[in-house]
Amino acid sequence: MVLLGLIVLVLSGCGTNVASPQPIGPDATGIWDKYFVYPLSWLIKESSMILGGSYGLGILVATIIIRLITLPLMVKQIKSSKMMQAIQPELTKIREKHKNDPQKAQQETMQLFQKNGVNPLAGCLPMFVQMPILIAFYHAIVRTPEIKAHSFLWLELGVKDPYYILPILAAITTYFQQKMMGSMTSANNPQMQMLTVMMPLMILAIAVTLPSALSLYWVYGNCFTIVQSYFLYRDRTPKVGPKEGTAK
Questions:
Q1: Scanning 42, 68, 118, 181, which has its CA 20 to 30 A from the CA of 34?
Q2: Residue 191 burial (CB count, 10 A)
Q3: Contact 170, 220 (CB under 8 A)
């Protein structure tokens, strides 16, 4: 839930009005502008040129490339989620066995994690990576005049969706993404079930204030993740036991 709050805070900040943002270009200076914001702006523009000048399609290409780059983190998250699901019965036994001794329960839990090669923090990595990407994407949009003023379908990419179609799609695709991940990893986890409902509602509330291009990126990314998760989660029977290479 802390991570969810951080994402909401980041998205809320992106939704605020920035007075006369400085345009971004090849002469950008500073680590943030030069290595994050401008490359994203360049990628969207170059992709759009290949696809007939449509910046909406350029954002699609940029989204796919970003998701492919972060794919190793997603795979690591999924492996960790699968293993966490597999060792849940043992975790429950430890908690029940040492319910009056939290320190002993924590010690045995860590030993179980080490035995099965589980990193409980691995699932947080993709969320942490997405935060700077969202900020950089926002700046690439509002600081690139041609993208900001471009029209795609019924949208003007630099302003919010007047019909709230994209925010609704962002919420719906977020729900299906959370639902899929929850059903494949921790369907009986009350916290995950609550997140499945709360996350789409918060995304909807924030997306109505965002530039359409950012909501478009979110929808594209969700659709990509849903398809990606389907293939990555197909094998859902991880073996519980020592890591490969240890004696049987």
A1: 68
A2: 10
A3: no
Q: How many CB atoms lie within 10 A of CB 10?
A: 18
pLDDT confidence of residue 189: 56
Q: Which residues, including other chains, have CB under 8 Å from residue 233's CB and lie 6 or more apart? A: 78, 82, 180, 181, 184, 185
Q: Which residues contact 171 (CB under 8 A, 6 or more apart)?
A: 200, 201, 203, 204, 207
pTM of the predicted model over 0.90: no
Residue 178's nearest CA partner among 191, 201, 197, 206 is: 197
pLDDT of residue 168: 92
Share of the chain above pLDDT 90, in %: 7
User: Which value, in Å, is the radius of gyration of the alpha carbons in the chain?
Assistant: 21
d(CA 131, CA 7): 6
pLDDT given at position 42: 93
Going from the C-alpha of 240 to that of each of 79, 94, 110, 116, 160, the distances in angstroms are 12, 16, 15, 6, 48
Q: What letter represents residue 3's amino acid?
A: L
**CA–CA separation, 90 and 44 (whole Å):** 48
In whole angstroms, give the CA distance from residue 86 to residue 230.
Answer: 19
Q: What is the DSSP letter of 70?
A: T
CA separation for the pair 84, 124 (Å, rounded)? 13
Distance between CA atoms of 118 and 112, rounded to whole angstroms? 8
DSSP 8-state class, residue 20: S
